[in-house]
Amino acid sequence: MNTQQILALATQHMQALNGHCFDVLELAKPASPEAAANLAKIISKLSPLVGNLIEFNTCEYLNKQSSFAGFGKWRRQDPGFPDTVFDGQISPMPGLEIKAWFPLATEITARFKDSQNHFAHDQTHVAMLAWLPEFLIFGKPKIVGIAVIPGGSIAKVRDEHYHKAPDYLVLEPEDTSARTSNLQQTNTNGYKFQGTAAQYVQAQQMVQNWGAGGTAYLPTREYQALLRALLAQFPYRLDTNFAKLDRIAHPSIERFKAEVYAAEFQGRTVGEWNRLLAKGDDASISAILAAQFGIQPNGNVVR
DNA sequence: TCTTCAGCTGCCGTCGTGTA
DNA sequence: TACACGACGGCAGCTGAAGA
Question: How far does the CA of A51 sit from the C1' of B12, in Å?
Fold first, then answer.
């Protein structure tokens, strides 16, 4: 098997996880409608924890698949990129970057900031796993949607979406190979122009001097040097929302979002639950949750 | 030698505001 | 009213320097 075949096989196994409950933790059923409304407001705080648990369990799940036997093993690396790599004789080493998405949160908050330069051999794919508690606000984490997308494609779309010199610059990590591992940079960053109108005109002139096609993003050393000259000469601010998967307008991610929001879950679509929990008042949220899940007032829980 | 702390990088989340 | 964007907060992991 080669890298692409391993990734194709992993993608196939990952798709089979749809509807699967991970037996990693279980949220207790709230004891009252009020508690249910309160829980609904803070349940997204669990997302980072569950996301990590899902990452561990996905690695275990893949290693249980006999089709990989004899070729290597999936290994989790945290910290490190990607989250999960296929350790064996296959070169380049296949990898999966796993991004958990809790679709009741305000947006897909996972970022994807890795440089296009990391995907020269198309050896790393991004696996997005949407999860919800099996009874919306309690129960075990349940996978409600999966998308596996080549990482290089996401990085390219991201850079083309954001990079609009001189207004917005995407910068590759600097050469930090001489530093210790904790101080090495691997991520791209986005910078937004903060200068005056007159400075903007000057910056535009600089970009025009780069010649035809000078605004098209390139991760090369030469082009990055031009961008750093702009950054040194004019005021820019670091964009801390850069590369949020929700915002990069990748067609496959947008399709995945639409599918998850349209999916039926506990009597409504996921999108309807999202809107209800985000916009509804406490009284209506608690009443709806109580009716849907048989939660009685005064702590009397119907089981 | 061990412990503590600062510095840096990376990750994930909500909320407020402006706009179509 | 929905959506996009910007601002901001919190936390973890790692390394190296400084001090006990």
Answer: 10
Whether A50 and A149 share a structural domain: yes
Nucleotides of C under 7 A from a protein CB: 2, 4-9, 13-16
**Are A8 and A66 part of one and the same domain?**
yes
Task: Using the CA of A246, give the nucleotide whose C1' is nearest.
Answer: C4
- Decide if A252 is inside a domain: yes
Closest protein CA to C1' of nucleotide C14, residue: A182
Are residues A14 and A119 both part of a single domain? Answer: yes
Are residues A221 and A194 part of one domain?
yes
Per-residue pLDDT tens digits for A18-65: 888 888 778 888 888 877 877 777 777 777 777 777 777 888 888 899
Q: Strand C contacts (CB < 7 A) among A residues 221-260?
A: 237, 239-241, 247
> Quick check: A123 pLDDT over 60?
yes
Residues spanned by the domain of A195: 162-238
DSSP labels, A97-116: EEEEE-TTSSS---B--B-G
pLDDT at residue A301, as a whole number: 43
Same domain, A77 and A145: yes
Tokens for A73, please give them. Answer: 């093993």
Decide if A277 is inside a domain.
no
Query: Domain check: are A125 and A192 in the same one?
Result: no
Whether the beta carbon of A185 falls within 7 A of nucleic chain B: the reply is yes
- How far apart, in Å, are the Cα atoms of A240 and each of A20, A102, A118, A187, A192? 33, 20, 21, 12, 10
Q: How far is CA A206 from CA A102, A136, A231, A235, in A?
A: 43, 53, 12, 15
- The pTM of the full predicted model, rounded to 2 decimals, is 0.87
**pLDDT at position A8:** 94
